Every structure is written in C-alpha cells, then in structure tokens.
Please model this.
Amino acid sequence: MSGRTILIAAMLMAAPASWTEQADGAPASHCASAEYRQFDFWVGTWDVYPTGGSELVAHSLIESVYNGCGLRENWNG
Model:
C-alpha cells in the first residue's frame, strides 16, 4: 500500500495546543515522563523485510510528533 500513512497519535490532532505546548512554545512536561518514551527505540528510518525473508518489501519512517506525545509511521511499500 504505497504512500499509506498510519497516525498513532490521531487523538492529539484535535487536542488544544495547551495539551502539547506551554505558553512559551516549549514541550508540555506531561509528555516527558517515562510512559511517553517507551517507543523511542522505534523512531527512525527502517527497511522492511518479511519475517525470515530477504526481499525488501517497504521503507518505513517513524517520527516523534506533537512534542513527543505521539508517533507517526510513514509506510512506503
């Protein structure tokens, strides 16, 4: 599915800016706790192969979004 984008942080799209930013534009501190950092290992650019296979099937870009409050996957098959 070429160009498919999966947005894990969909709920935050409609969230008020006060949920993700302080008045000075700095990231909100509630997204700095350990619970929000559990998937940081996943952030980056990945080549995707089927389990046990050697044929490249896709590229995936995982980004931290909303000041660290969510993740977005950009999948390009």
